[in-house]
Amino acid sequence: MTKLSPERKSLDGVKDPALRRQLELLELTMPTAPKAPNQAQDTAKRSAPANDNQPDFFVPAVQDVPIKDGLDLMDIAVFRLAKSQTRKGDIIRHELPGVTITVAGGAHGMATIMDYDVVLMMVSHLAEQTRLHRQGRAPKPAKFFRPSSVEIFKFCRVSKGGASYDMLAESLRRLQGTFIEIAHNNAGKRSRRTGYFPLIAGADVISRTDTGRIGTVEIIIPDWMYDAVTSHTNPEVLTLDPDYFLLKKGLARFIYRLARKAAGTSEATYSFEAIHARSGSTRDIYNFTKDLRKLIELEQIL
Predict the structure, then answer these.
(1) From CA 118, how far away is CA 222, in angstroms rounded?
(2) What is d(CA 251, CA 76) in angstroms, rounded to the nearest whole number?
(3) To 10 degrees, the CA torsion angle through 281, 279, 242, 47?
(4) What's the predicted TM-score (pTM) here?
(5) Residue 242 and residue 146: Cα distance in Å, rounded?
(6) Dihedral of the alpha carbons of 3, 4, 5, 8, in degrees to the nearest 10
(7) What is the C-alpha to C-alpha distance for residues 225 and 197, in angstroms, rounded to an integer?
(8) β-bridge mates for residue 195, sequence order
(9) Which of 71, 155, 215, 232 has the fewest CB atoms inside 10 Å of its own CB, making it the most exposed?
(10) 248 neighbors 257 (Cβ within 8 angstroms)
(11) Lowest-pLDDT range of 124-133, 142-151, 293-302
(12) pLDDT at 39
């Protein structure tokens, strides 16, 4: 017999077995109110950390800078989407029209799309300093970026807990070891720069907290990124929505980047197979398609 819910215990007072059974059957056929969606599982975004919009008087206001991303690399994955696979020494190869792009992971594993948040912060800072310099309000930006760990957490919209400090240290190791190679394979139009490019050119911990965690870190901006932002009249960057950092899944973030680069054109169409290839995912196409359809069903990446 079906186990009675707390609301159905009132049937215990019905003495006639036949009547009681009919009432049970009637209740089983009545529609029930739909359950409220589980916000932790049924949304593409996580909740913002506590005091997310509250200014910190001891932290510079870099978190208020518009979030910028390098235009060249927004339509492909130059990182792994999944946190579960380190992909040490692994390679992602993108065969695109006229160009081959290779991403290689280092000894600490390939950088993740979450690690790339640090790169986004670096590009955003560089773009803002370049804008101020051209207005005569600041010196030309240096190739060294010195954010505090708290400033990074604020910009990337993550909590300041101990786990965030550990993840920051791991992110810097993976970013330092991940390299990109871009090679043209025909004499056609060159829409991307060629060469070998690190995601960051180095990093050093300048100070530590009383508990030994990262206080301030100095990140060396790679030449290719520095030149792309500072040497062009219109820097090769695009603004991202701040809620990008709240997207929980690497795939959701990748889809947003892909769509953001296409924004401003009439339209952009990608097959599921093309998205699978550009994402660099190790998931087989069947399960990747299931993941993508599930994401589409949420109808809310941003």
Answers:
(1) 13
(2) 12
(3) -30
(4) 0.77
(5) 21
(6) 170
(7) 9
(8) 182
(9) 232
(10) no
(11) 293-302
(12) 45
Q: In this model, does residue 37 exceed pLDDT 70?
A: no
Q: Which amino acid is at 158?
A: V
Domains in the chain: how many in total?
A: 1
- What φ, ψ does residue 108 adopt, rounded to 5°? -90, 5
The answer for residues whose C-beta is within 8 angstroms of residue 128's C-beta and 6 or more apart is 62, 65, 66
pLDDT for position 71? 72
Rounded to 5 degrees, φ, ψ at 114 are: -75, -40
Q: Is residue 283 pLDDT above 80, yes or no? A: yes
pLDDT at site 51: 65
What stretch of H or E contains 128? helix 116-134
Residue 45 lies in a domain: no
Whether residue 23 is contained in a domain is answered as: no
Amino acid letter at 65?
Answer: V
For 115, the domain range is 51-298
Query: Which among 288, 283, 284, 278 has a CA at the least distance from the CA of 254?
Result: 278
